[in-house]
Specification:
With 262 residues, the chain is mostly helical. The chain is built from 11 helices and no strands.
């Protein structure tokens, strides 16, 4: 391994073969496979980095495995950023204490960013779009396919681009992430999704498949959702995301049961 750069800026003096980096990325898909209450994702992170750590001296490899198996609790998709940056630090043979401090500092922000972008925005938005497609009469199998393609395309892109960003930026990955404004993009995407849901819902309620076809539970739910959204605005989006998706699922079940019984 090289000892010149220390994890940021210029490329390592001895670049790793692409196959090694790909192996780390693929292993990163399974960081939660050995999740436990003591180290959480720590064992998975250490296992994912083995292809890089094997190229170190035996003494450094043993110490590196120990520190990367320590407690780590980020986000399973955005952990790829940490894997890239930590791999870069190990390749550059950065000071072990620097690596440990960087590892501890990055896990919380990555977890919060992933929660905001993925769990609180992308998943509810994709679920709402899927519900609208189903409401419009698109076959259920097609709706499920569209949802799975959109969701998996997002998380695979986050994993691939996140690892590349971490490897390139090293310890400077924080400012690079802030420059991408992922939270702002997620908020704009959520706003567009809600606007689309509102437009399509209005068209369906006003059309031939309107109140009479949807029956009173759908109409009351639509009015209630409009009122809550009008009063609360985007402030209510995050805390009510799970409730919203659950309500949509219940309404879909009621509508399906009504159609089957009819």
């Amino acid at each position: 391994m090289s000892s010149a750069p220390k994890g940021s800026g210029a490329a390592p003096e001895t670049p790793l073969p692409p196959g090694v980096l790909r192996a780390v990325q693929l292993r990163g898909m399974f960081v939660q496979a050995s999740w436990n209450y003591r180290t959480m994702q720590g064992n998975g992170m250490a296992w994912a980095m083995l292809p890089v750590l094997r190229r170190a001296s035996e003494e450094r490899r043993a110490a590196a495995l120990d520190r990367h198996a320590e407690h780590f609790n980020g986000h399973p998709y955005f952990d790829s950023v940490a894997l890239g940056a930590l791999s870069r630090l190990e390749v550059d043979e950065a000071d072990p204490e620097t690596i440990r401090r960087f590892r501890a500092a990055i896990r919380g922000p990555l977890g919060a960013l992933g929660d905001r972008v993925v769990w609180a925005t992308a998943v509810p938005s994709f679920a709402l779009l899927a519900a609208v497609l189903y409401w419009m009469g698109v076959p259920g199998a097609v709706v499920a396919f569209v949802f799975l393609v959109a969701y998996n395309a997002l998380h695979l892109a986050i994993r691939a681009q996140g690892f590349a960003l971490g490897w390139e930026a090293g310890t400077a990955v924080g400012p690079r992430l802030r420059g991408l404004d992922l939270t702002g993009r997620a908020e704009r995407f959520a706003a567009l999704t809600l606007a689309l849901v509102g437009v399509v819902s209005g068209v369906l309620l006003a059309g031939g498949r309107g109140v009479g076809a949807l029956e009173w539970p759908w109409f009351v739910a639509a009015l209630g959702a409009f009122f809550v959204g009008y009063v609360g605005g985007v402030r209510l989006w995050r805390p009510t995301a799970i409730v919203t998706v659950g309500a949509v699922a219940i309404l879909l079940a009621l509508g399906s049961a009504s159609l089957l019984s009819g």
